Amino acid sequence: MKILCMNLNGNKDDILSNEKDNLKCDIYAYQESKYALPEKTRINTVIIGADNIIHKNVNNFKDIWNEYFPWLTFPENYFSEYDYIDVNSKIIFKLINVHLAGFWSEKRHLLEFVLLQRLQQEELQNLNVILVGDFNAQKKYSGKKTSGTLFLEKLENLGFDEKFSTSEENNNLVVPTYYNHEDGVRLDHIYIRCSHDFYNNVEVNYYPAYSDNEMSIECASDHRGIILELN
Questions:
Q1: Residues linked to residue 184 through DSSP beta bridges, in sequence order
Q2: Residue 193 forms beta bridges with which residues?
Q3: If 0-12 CB within 10 Å is exposed, 13-18 middle and 19+ buried, where does residue 48 land?
Q4: Of 124, 144, 125, 148, whose CA–CA distance to 135 is shortest?
Q5: Distance of CA 25 to the CA centre of its chain
Q6: What is d(CA 151, CA 160) in angstroms, rounded to the nearest whole number?
Q7: Is 39 strand, coil or helix?
Q8: How does strand 27-33 pair with strand 44-48?
Q9: Pick from 192, 210, 202: which is nearest to 229 by CA?
């Protein structure tokens, strides 16, 4: 089971069309995709399954938003949710894909609040949950805290563990997923909260692969994708 989380920078997944045979992912969790919402053309956050069907499902997020912010229009293009069940392999989880707006946006903290409320709902407490997306936030790895550190710590306080590659863990390295000029930062993340041991091993890789001392990403997107493999 392989999942690719990637910000497409306003593209459809045709930017990966020549690579899909090599990637062989079962699920693609996209942010800033051109796959449109019904009757809309806004950039969207979507999940595309192995059946090539677009899975969206934002009802739970919409209900929370309308409960707390009924005077504001729900920004449904920032969330998507998908239930994955494979009876044969016994892999069962809920995949939640998010794109949190930048800190300059008036939506930012409202989106954070709604996501935290959703993750604390009782129906998710006994499920395996995989949370992926472009969080526009980086954890504190050294020095002072960066924008978004406190929010990512709140996710960890809810029992979510961020997944890194073996190389990162062995070499005390954090692979950048975005470059602001030559400053590499990790804005994209994969978190897992397990209620059941539904995998034996977790492997993380990157698309495109990371090269030592690189200062940009050579890809049609301006973000690096994170590939999560569950064995």
A1: 179
A2: 129
A3: buried
A4: 148
A5: 15
A6: 12
A7: coil
A8: antiparallel
A9: 202
The secondary element (H helix, E strand) that includes residue 195 is none
111 three-state secondary structure: helix
pTM over 0.90: yes
Per-residue pLDDT of the chain (231 residues; tens, 9 = 90+): 899 999 999 988 888 888 888 899 999 999 999 987 767 777 899 999 877 889 889 999 999 999 999 999 999 999 999 999 877 767 789 999 999 998 889 999 999 999 999 999 999 998 999 999 999 998 865 555 566 888 999 999 999 999 999 999 998 889 999 998 888 999 999 999 998 777 778 899 999 999 888 899 988 899 999 999 998
In the structure encoding, which two tokens stand for residue 79, read together? 């969330």
Sign of CA dihedral 9, 14, 19, 25: positive
Report the Cα–Cα distance between both ends of the chain, in Å, rounded.
Answer: 7
